[in-house]
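Moderator note: this is an archived Q&A kept for reference. The question asked for a predicted structure of one protein chain; the sequence and the answer are reproduced below.
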Amino acid sequence: MVPSREALLGPGTTAIRCPKKLQNQNYKGHGLSKGKEREQRASIRFKTTLMNTLMDVLRHRPGWVEVKDEGEWDFYWCDVSWLRENFDHTYMDEHVRISHFRNHYELTRKNYMVKNLKRFRKQLEREAGKLEAAKCDFFPKTFEMPCEYHLFVEEFRKNPGITWIMKPVARSQGKGIFLFRRLKDIVDWRKDTRSSDDQKDDIPVENYVAQRYIENPYLIGGRKFDLRVYVLVMSYIPLRAWLYRDGFARFSNTRFTLNSIDDQYVHLTNVAVQKTSPDYHPKKLHPTVGPLCIHSPENGSLSVTPWPWDAHMGCKWTLQRFRQYLASKHGPEAVETLFRDIDNIFVKSLQSVQKVIISDKHCFELYGYDILIDQDLKPWLLEVNASPSLTASSQEDYELKTCLLEDTLHVVDMEASFSPIIPAEV
């Protein structure tokens, strides 16, 4: 990953207590070969259960060898369920790396993310004043349900008629989300949750967040969209993070309206939701939302002309194409301000969990940030994903995620532990 920015924030070190010898049979060791033994084997042993773009990238990386079942590994792109069940019982040698921090959920579970941001905002107000604390005003008013139900009702009655959105705190891909404007809908929801099936997510009891819905999203071609941006964190103490230069905008398949809050195809931009729409086709998008030709006449102004439809793109734009569109509509200065505000979201959100996430030296994490833009070009943080989808929905999507993963592996730099046997790829 070619870093566009690197955050080095906060002093301090972290101590990880691990047994020097695996005397406890409950511990599973990985990467235990001695230094000289490791140099003698010219390969990096990797493991993953994800059969998508990630597997393609790992299998084609020079000097990397796949390990299956219970084999010893040096690099494991694991899922969060493995982490939860095995991390505390696994001893890892110095060079071993895994793809999640132990308590990543402090940032990636919706209720914890908001709790940490609220706490951090209060801390900033005490230590640096209201102006600095205002830099954390990038998430909608949010209440955890059911524990903050009475606080929510109080807020709800202050602003009758506005739209709220309910989200399960630990689900993804738009599952369980619904919009509402009446308290009766919440009463019905509470009844439904008592009789719902057992949850298979990270927590034993399914909680929700009730969040004020952004009723004035920025629209392109009449469609709502959000941005998926990737941030790689290598350490929290000190904080070291890389922002990936590319990402994409995900469009809904149906024109936006507040007159049909029950239509998930209008309000949810998740590909997992949109592809179930009866009239969805990955090569179809409204003509005014197609790829753009950006003209720069002699007077320096920009104009926009839709190109013929690109059959490889699907219901997405790259961030570069999105920036070009905004620059043609609002000018380059407004775009720079917007993306500077988005950068602030990354930095402040990571700082909010810097002291609570266990910064184990074996861990790294590739986060998928979901950002919504409103009509005033203000960015809002919707959520942070610990396991952003690495499955490609189009050829262009495949190429983007392939480059993302290759650059991520460059930064993680497993080759450095095995050099000079395995030269790092440039």
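Archived answer notes: The first strand starts at residue 6 and ends at 9.
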